[in-house]
Fold each of these.
Amino acid sequence: MSIGTFNCPVCSQPLTLPPSFTGTQVQCPQCQNIINVPGQGVPPITPQPITPQPISPQPMANTPLAGSIGKMSLAQSADTGADTLTRQLFTKITTEVAKVFVGQEELVLGTLVSLFSNGHVLIESVPGLGKTLFVRTLGHVLGCEFGRIQFTADLMPSDITGAPIFNVKTQEFTFHPGPVFTQLLLADEINRSPAKTHAALLEIMQEHRVTVDGESYQLDPPFLVIATQNPVEQEGTYNLPEAQLDRFMMKLIVNYPTEQQEADILKQHSQQKNLGEILTNELQTVSSPAEINEAIKANADVRIDDALADYINKIVRLTRQWPQLYMGASPRAGLALMQGARTLAAFQGRDYAIPDDVVQIALPILRHRVMLTAESEVEGQEVDQILTDLIRTVNVPRL
């Protein structure tokens, strides 16, 4: 039930609001003007404009720019702060990966932030953009084990976790680990398997352990799941349930490379060289699982000011009240924003996080945790634009 549709007096943007907004003031997501909401039962009228109120404090060095919301950039994440061990490690990793994997900065940075935050990544892209190449390259550079599962409609949970196998010699059942027992796991086309198989990943992603026949087996850290799904081909697929979507720290949208990047890809990978030889001969292993675990522990000490924590809390809670969103983000989204901001700050050599760190990762962390209303979907509105408008209305703290 809504109070009806009325137009913004400045930009004529149609607004549809629930009854709880009756008699209040809201900000137009299109032009940012503050307008009055008409009372219930009152015919839709054009309200009188009110002098726009400033939405954020005066610009400061650490105030995020509107255009930077959701723009993840490797250069932007490595140009400030002290020359700490974590920053040096981040620079070495990205330099080595760039020798083989061209472009896709958001994919590289988002995956590294998730890895060093004990999170997981869901990638949405069409086939052929180099996801497998990236994961194999990252595994070699980090010195981590790499595993891949091709999800199909007949894939069973035991195909992922492993199962007890009867040993004829000992006359006992012996557990044989499945492909999930690795450190970097590529779950390719995860939405092609049914919910029963999806459920097998829930405990693994959250608690880093596998339980079979009442016995638990721990996975060695670090452990990162990189799941992919095709946004175009929907026949024969199963939507991921909200419970599993929430387990992914980020959802990254990988688009086609730029013209120059694609030209570089053609020149670099058109000679049909064996990928294993390329990884062995051209790339160096610059890290180890032990070093990554130490960096993850160190990132937890990055300071989050109380004002920045309130800023994150306001953004997450506002998603549950925004008129164009049917379902808002969970508290896990706030935790992901805080830990992701810590990791980005550590990559930049800082021991404190700033609002820029939050807005840079806000869209990848929130876009898969909210649902649009039916009206918004019919109108063709995009979740990223709605979230961008939402974030712009939250006052940026002075730190």
Amino acid sequence: MKNKVMIVAGEASGDLHGSGLVREMFAQQSDLEIFGIGGDQMSNLGMQLLYHINEMSVVGLWDVLKRFAFFRKVYHNMVAAMDKYLPEVLILIDYPGMNLKLARAAKKRDIRILYYIAPQAWAWGSNRIQKMVQLVDKMAVIIPFEEQIFRDAGIDATFVGHPLLEIVNSKIDQSTFFSKYGLNANHPVIGLLPGSRNLEVKRLLPEMLQTIVQLRNKYPQIQTIISKSNSVAWDVYQGIIQNNVHVKLLENCTYEIMKHSDLLVVASGTATLESALFETPLIIVYKVDPISYLIGKQLIKIDSIGLVNVIAEKKIVPEFVQHQFRWNKLMPEMENLLFNDDQRTDVIDDLRKIKEKLGSPGASRRTAKMAIEMLNSV
């Protein structure tokens, strides 16, 4: 029985979803040898890490260019690992900049390729989709409309549901959470989620906090909690928060923050969808270096960057990107979502519909089954 699998996940969300996949693959075939790029969650389940996601994290084209020599080294070492370990299947999790190059190398070596969590190629135009048509054997997609897009292009794509449905859950109720962190149930709570990378936190958190300062001038009862990412050091946050005594930096309770806040301000990415699954009103923000923004503006073919709005196929939550991400623009939207009951109700209803679109739990199990079948049909 074939048993060697390489997996490449380059970001925190990839480690999260990859860990579910690794767990289910071992459950279906216990003698697997799984290796590649991932994070602590994948490693803890038995995957051998050749590189850790913390080494791979970048934001924007300029950050990639600055680390070009490192990523070239990673690519060559991963190709060398293909030749050394001879995997029968390569599983790619999002992260297209590196993964499509590795797919080409794997194709030359007759390694079967499964893409789990497709790159958002539909946002960038058809060129990237055509590359995948040439390289990918199967795709396990997690956004409903992706299946038809990739099938129409000629890729064997299957909608497996969204893996977040398996894991998004608050472990403690609101009363316990508020008591534990000294929050007042009678006053509004705003949760800030500035991302899972150092650069994201450095770019987004200062303006988030400036918005809070201005908002508290008008509504001094507002409480603010910040979700600390495990992949970002405490001193990064402390250097930004400094002596702001009106915010609390909380660790290892991201889902509780999402569940029990009245409003969230969230960096664009997986966290926006996680927030939506808790049906908590949110505002999406993002900022990259100017070069990446100008290039991306020319290439991106859709109006929204937030997964919540993309899946809804309409703008149901506000987005503030680049120069629009300013406290004076955020503040009116935050006031509306906090204090306008009709607007809050409409947004919550729309978020509930997002959850209904994402299928049923079991994406990791279904994708693992696809991978095992590919492995043993080689």
